[in-house]
Design goal:
With 638 residues, this protein is an all-alpha fold. 75% of the residues lie in helices and 0% in strands. The protein has 25 helices and no strands. Helix 8 packs across helix 11. The longest helix is centred in the first third of the chain and has 35 residues. It is globular.
């Protein structure tokens, strides 16, 4: 809806103010579709740098992801109509079927094939080559063969891969995949910007007297940029207002301001403008109009990248979205903990190497700011405070000092640490992909509930409650057994996505055990470490943070106790079977690491190492897929 509204708002302005470039509403709609596509790369990097809340990054990236496909579809429709097309009702239905239905199905099919193969290889080269080839083949199949939308197909494939494929790519493959795709994104953006700049520069250099770009054209481009800001402010306000009326109050006026100002334009819009210029050269559209549209798009893109991008960080500080007092107090404690760890490492290094402790302390500990580096910053600008009285839609305004935001910030950090621990266990193959997917989802639900409708006042961990509500973990642990239906589902799921859909009893026990282990680990290096670093400040905010951390540690201990109570309620055969299974997987992981290390040191031949790693992989597969055999062995041992 936001893309469609923005498209027609820009079309109305273009018809009235840019008659040379958009003589009718069709070309105006094409221009609106082009400038509706946002590029979040710079803003996402900034949000990560300043430590903004994950929900804002999710909204920014999700908006761009959905807007790109919608903008491409609207652009195709507008260009088809501008070229003189007169579609019938059957043509419209066929177009929607190909673009909206067939293209996502093509992307889904390619994603399932990629997940199938990703789960059966650990070679980083194969992982990278597979994802690159699959993306290209998915686009070609959807756009050229099926005559649909290659963008929507690739977007659908990416969403499925991000949900299922990420658990199949671990270790070196994950690092290589991220580096290669970041490089590909950089090269593609650079190529698009270079091509657009070269074309417009060539046109300016070779233009005749009547075709030259005048100061009036530049002024109209600036006016278009200003109108884009105004129209985006209207669309963002309407969307946030509709969300609040529907009960979605996680995003406030601060996030709305960042969404408005951070709507940068980038490679997608330039690519569409270049294709429009190509239509003009072919005579399908007026060539003069396509050249002017390309010029206006380039100017607006440059303005958003040079004005909006660099100033988004200052805007976030101005509205008080980052560096609030409670966040700075938590940051101070984290920095103090890292400094204490560094001091311990310095002492150990001095003892082992016989080095001078004073030299190491001056060099290593000198990089840390005094007092942890926390400084109280000025509150939000006064005019923004005034605007927030009506922008909050009835929500009480936050104070300038430490407030309930410290509870939300601490909970989000804790959930993030627990989620990382689940993925670490998955990377070490000590946790099945199915259990890791469920547990990571519980952390995501918990973070979504923080500060939302499901959240409650105070420090409350909701991930265990969500697991219980979804009946993945029942109040009483059942016997460990595999029925025919469970075995069939396990084989079908393993064939499709690479990991088995384990029987309910296995899965619930594994989830409970991993939940307890992860919370115990995170509580040790998160809450306890930060509580030990609380002596550096005596401010009321420090006392508030101290109380929140203590409450969070108590809540974590309580939830871990519930998980262990659930495990103790299971029959002895089930407990012993799961313990044997986890121990076998742990030993296999340690042996794989040892063999890989010895191979790197040339202590064992490559052939022997591959043979042994293959045997260990077969044992892992048998341990994960043939639980009934472990049940029988455990019964004999009992």
């Amino acid at each position: 809806p936001g893309v469609v509204a923005g498209c027609f708002l820009v079309a109305g302005f273009a018809i009235a103010a840019l008659p040379d470039a958009t003589p009718d509403w069709k070309l105006g709609a094409a221009l609106g579709a082009i400038v509706s596509a946002t590029d979040p790369a710079a803003v996402l990097a900034l949000l990560k740098e300043v430590g903004a809340e994950p929900k804002l990054s999710t909204v920014v990236s999700g908006e761009s992801l959905l807007n790109d496909g919608s903008s491409v579809v609207l652009f195709k429709v507008a260009v088809f109509l501008a070229a003189g097309g007169s579609p019938t009702a059957e043509d419209v239905l066929a177009f929607l079927a190909l673009e909206v239905l067939a293209s996502p199905l093509v992307g889904l099919a390619f994603a399932l094939v990629v997940v199938f193969w990703l789960s059966r290889t650990r070679d980083p080269v194969v992982v990278v080559a597979l994802t690159l080839a699959a993306s290209w083949a998915c686009y070609v199949c959807a756009d050229w063969l099926c005559r649909g939308s290659g963008v929507l197909a690739v977007v659908t494939s990416s969403l499925v891969l991000a949900d299922l494929g990420k658990l199949s790519v671990t270790g070196e493959g994950s690092v290589a995949l991220r580096c290669v795709w970041e490089l590909a994104e950089f090269l593609a953006n650079s190529m698009v910007f270079s091509l657009a700049g070269t074309i417009i520069g060539f046109e300016l250099a070779t233009a005749t007297t009547g075709e030259q770009v005048s100061l009036a054209d530049l002024g109209l481009a600036v006016a278009l940029y200003a109108y884009l800001l105004a129209s985006r402010a209207l669309v963002v306000t309407l969307c946030l207002g509709a969300g609040r009326l529907c009960g979605l109050k996680q995003l406030g006026w601060r996030e709305g301001v960042v969404l408005w100002w951070g709507g940068l334009r980038g490679a997608v819009g330039l690519s569409l403008a270049l294709s429009l210029d190509e239509y003009g050269e072919q005579g399908v559209l007026p060539e003069g109009s396509s050249k002017k549209v390309l010029f206006y798009v380039i100017v607006t893109t440059v303005f958003t990248l040079t004005l909006n991008g660099p100033t988004t960080g200052r805007l976030m500080h101005a509205v008080g979205l980052v560096d609030r007092t409670e966040r700075l107090e938590l940051n101070r404690r984290v920095m103090a903990h890292i400094k204490s760890v560094a001091a311990a490492r310095v002492c150990a290094a001095c003892e082992e190497e016989g080095a001078d402790q004073a030299v190491l302390e001056s060099r290593v500990l000198g990089i840390f700011p005094a007092g942890g580096g926390a400084e109280v910053v000025a509150p939000a600008a006064p005019w923004l405070r005034t605007w927030s009285k009506w922008a909050e839609w009835g929500v009480e305004e936050e104070g300038d000092n430490c407030d309930d935001g410290v509870e939300e910030d601490a909970l989000r950090r804790y959930y993030g640490s627990v989620r990382s621990e689940y993925l670490r266990l998955r990377d070490r193959r000590e946790l099945s992909s199915q259990a890791a997917l469920i547990l990571a989802g519980s952390c995501d639900r918990g973070m979504d509930a923080v500060g939302g409708a499901e959240g409650t006042q105070g420090v409350h961990l909701l991930d265990w409650a969500w697991l219980c509500r979804t009946e993945l973990v029942r109040r009483r642990a059942p016997n460990l057994s595999l029925g025919k239906i469970s075995a069939w589902l396990n084989r079908a799921s393993s064939l499709t996505v690479g990991f088995g859909w384990e029987s309910g009893s296995q899965l619930r026990l594994e989830v409970a055990a991993a939940y307890a282990a992860a919370h115990r680990t995170v509580r040790g290096h998160f809450t306890s470490a930060l509580l030990e670093e609380g002596s550096g400040s005596c401010s009321p905010c420090s006392d508030r943070v101290l109380g929140v951390l203590q409450a969070l540690r108590g809540e974590s201990e309580e939830k871990e106790g519930e998980a262990r109570l659930y495990l103790r309620s299971a029959p002895e055969l089930s407990r012993r079977t799961m313990a044997n299974r986890r121990a076998i997987l742990r030993v296999i992981t340690e042996l794989e690491e040892e063999v890989e290390t010895m191979e790197a040191e040339s202590a064992i031949s490559g052939g022997d190492a591959r043979d042994l790693l293959g045997r260990l992989s077969g044992l892992r597969l048998a341990t994960c897929k043939r639980t009934q055999a472990i049940v029988l062995d455990t019964k004999k041992a009992l």
